[in-house]
Amino acid sequence: MKHLINILDLSTDDIKELILIANDIIENPEKYALKCAGKKLATLFFEPSTRTRLSFEAAMLELGGSVIGFSEAQSSSAAKGESIADTTKTVNCYADIIAMRHPKEGAPTVAALNSQIPVINAGDGGHNHPTQTLADLLTIYREKKQFSGLTIGLCGDLKFGRTVHSLISAMSRYSDNKFVLISPDELKLPSYIKKDILNQNNLQYHETSDLQSVISDLDILYMTRVQRERFFNEADYIRLKDSYILTPDKLTHAKQDMCIMHPLPRVNEISVSIDDDPRACYFKQVLNGKYMRMALILKLLGVI
Question: What pTM was estimated for this model as a whole?
Answer without folding.
Answer: 0.90
